[in-house]
Design goal:
The chain is of the alpha/beta class and about 270 residues long. The chain is built from ten helices and 13 strands. The longest helix is centred in the middle third of the chain and has 9 residues. The structure holds zinc ion (ZN).
Amino acid sequence: MRLQVLGTAAGGGVPQWNCACPGCSGARAHPGHRRRHASLAVQIDDGAYVINATPDIADQIESCAWLRPGPGPRESPLKGVILTDAELDHTIGLLRLREADALEVRSTPVVRHALRPFADLLRPYLQLTWTDADTIPVSGKRPRYAAGSPEATGWVSALRLGPLVYVPAMGVWPDELDEAFEQAACVIVDGTFWDDEEPRRTGISAKTATQMGHLPIEATMERLSRLPGRRLYTHLNNTNPLVDPAAEQHKALAELGIEVAADGMVIDL
Ligand SMILES: [Zn+2]
């Protein structure tokens, strides 16, 4: 399975356009520290797919040699997009793909339903075909724009993609996910926040990380370290100390045999 990491940041990216926090300022001063929104390119079944359609999607496609168009003048290898949830940072890139002739979108039914406004906007431009993704529910958190929607399973999911399990947002760690993790050659997991108080301490939210739908790294790293396959964190918020490559937290993870995903990383599976 072919896999390239296209981005590793949570909503807003690093740096976020309206943020002067230490993480964002550091990335402005050192362009090598920048992180695009979390996304993957994968070659599965019969085609190339992007996991989550972020605001950076056009640049992310350009950054991956095997996603670039050709040999025909309007021939793209991109077959579709697979979604973990309906959050805007993971879906707004669908609008950026309107130049396509046709695309497949894989998601849960509840995500598909939430994205009806996108489907309506795109209908005059391209043919979107919606299919079900192979998912494990990991949170019932609805996007803010869908706060009035009924509670349901499938709002936030882990994706099973052959030897890979990708779960950039994880509010709970259910037994079913554990079984999938045990069988996976590689797991790429929610590393949005380092500790539970981080969002409150840094002033970005009145909620804890867990209340925001993200188990913090401190709550998952020991358990992750016991898994048999390769383990990486992704979806780093700009408040996460890991956005500074010199942070001591990198050492703590390395000692547990856990990696921090980097933009552009190629993973052979
Ligand atoms: Zn920031």
